[in-house]
Specification:
Elements: E1 7-15, E2 25-34, E3 44-47, H1 58-64, H2 77-89, E4 96-99, H3 102-114, E5 125-128, H4 129-136, H5 145-151, H6 162-182, H7 188-196, H8 213-216, E6 223-228, E7 234-240, H9 243-249, H10 259-265, E8 270-275, H11 279-293, E9 308-312, E10 318-319, E11 326-332, H12 338-349, H13 363-376, H14 387-419
Helix pairs in contact: 4-6, 5-6, 5-10
């Protein structure tokens, strides 16, 4: 099987959690095509009905743009699997799925299969474009789907939709298959043998698409900088007291370089700067530019990111506009309150939700931990009868912690004053 000419099924899933025990399959899409094809098949996409009509978490709605009313069109998981198996078995049958970061999708596919009697397992192998890119580009700072597509000079929609990710995976596969062919990896057997070899050691420094000369000769003056992708689209706008120092700080060391920041740097091919007379002028201009350009990596002040919400008195529900029941606010819309909602529901039911934290924790361990917390602070479970009471006690603990930190700082400064300046 030739990697460039063979037909594969490209697939992506969007979910409400990181693993099947923490969330559900929300959306799935796939497409049959070849790397050399100029006209791939139409992408098949399905919203998946949630068990017991479970609501989609607000943060997932924000990431995907899938509103609750859209789930009226959702189909049962069994029907989704039936369509997927039909696509795999259609003539000629598909031998392999191509998925970006298959480590995420694989458990959800296995879970989908396990809930049905239609098949014992997915009747196809899986090729992971992330795994391939990791070997082809060991010095690239990130190899997520958005980082790779940007590195190849293409852009993506901000929302995480399965059909958009399928389209991106097809595009990435074309680049990877062509690169593999240059290395003599032409077929599936060649690829499996190549993947079985030990990973080459990554060099100590990352490699970026932005030529160093474009950042090393920036002026040492206040201003704003715009990071541009291959097509000239603005990815990020920032302000600086020194343009030279601030921009180059993105490419030095590892401190403060989050995964999101590394993802962005994989896509930066050019810079545009505007010098200002003072840092204050730069700060004001930055705000105006973010509102004007709406860059995808500026989280605050972006269009669509400035929603406000109003809560009811119990803080148990929120609306975008105030009404007779929702008068507390406005607050910035976010998913910060969701853990409080989950904890409150757990206390009401008497059984802890294992998805309360990022990692799954056994319900009995959560219960024992909460009992220990209450015992340490002389509290009873009944104390937390509402979300307001949980929030109020959390703020109380936060203030106590701030006070303790201030006292430690004062003691440290007093000790330095007593000891005098270091010789």
């Amino acid at each position: 099987m030739n990697l460039l000419s063979s037909e594969f099924l490209f697939l992506d899933c969007q979910t409400t959690g990181a693993t099947p025990d923490k969330g559900n399959l929300l959306e799935i899409a796939w497409c049959r095509t070849r790397a050399l094809s100029d006209s791939p098949d139409k992408i098949a996409s399905f919203l998946v009905r949630q068990p017991d009509d479970e609501p989609v978490p607000r943060r997932i709605q924000d990431l995907t743009g899938i509103a609750p009313e859209a789930l009226c069109e959702a189909v049962a998981p069994e029907l989704v699997l039936e369509h997927l198996l039909a696509a795999l078995k259609a003539s000629p049958p598909i031998s392999h799925l191509v998925i970006h970061y298959a480590q995420f999708e694989r458990p959800f596919l296995h879970d989908l299969i396990s809930r049905s009697s239609q098949a014992a397992e997915i009747p196809a192998g899986i090729l992971c474009t992330h795994q391939i890119a990791r070997r082809l580009y060991p010095d690239l700072p990130a190899r997520g789907i958005r980082a790779l597509r940007g590195f190849f000079g293409e852009s993506m929609n901000d929302l995480k939709r399965a059909s958009c990710h399928v389209e991106a995976t097809i595009s990435i596969w074309r680049r990877l298959a062509a690169e593999l062919a240059v290395k003599g990896v032409a077929g599936i057997d060649d690829l499996e043998q190549w993947l079985s070899q030990p990973l080459s050691a990554r060099r100590t420094k990352f490699e970026y698409p932005l030529p160093p000369d474009k950042r090393l000769h920036l002026p040492d003056r206040p201003g704003i900088y715009r990071m541009l992708n291959h097509q000239g689209k603005v990815l990020y706008v920032g302000k600086a007291t020194s343009l030279k120092d601030r921009v180059n700080s993105y490419f030095r060391g590892r401190k403060g370089r989050t995964s999101k920041k590394l993802e962005m740097l994989c896509q930066v091919f050019d810079l545009s700067v505007t010098e200002c007379d003072t840092p204050l002028e730069a700060a004001l201009l930055e705000t105006d530019e973010i509102k004007r350009l709406n860059p995808p990596y500026n989280i605050n002040l972006r269009v669509g990111r400035r929603q406000l919400v109003f809560y009811n008195r119990e803080l148990s529900s929120a609306t975008g506009l105030p009404d007779s029941a929702h008068q507390i606010g406005p607050f910035a819309a976010s998913s910060v309150m969701e853990p409080l909602f989950v904890l409150h529901q757990s206390l009401l039911k008497g059984t802890f939700d294992t998805r309360l934290f990022f990692d799954t924790i056994a319900a009995e361990d959560l219960s024992a931990g909460f009992d220990s917390f209450c015992q340490r602070h002389g509290l009873k479970t009944q104390t937390f009868s509402s979300i307001r009471s949980l929030l109020a006690f959390g703020l109380c603990l936060f203030r106590i912690e701030l006070k303790a930190q201030a006292q430690q700082l004062a003691q440290h400064l007093a000790l330095e004053l007593e000891e005098g300046p270091a010789e």
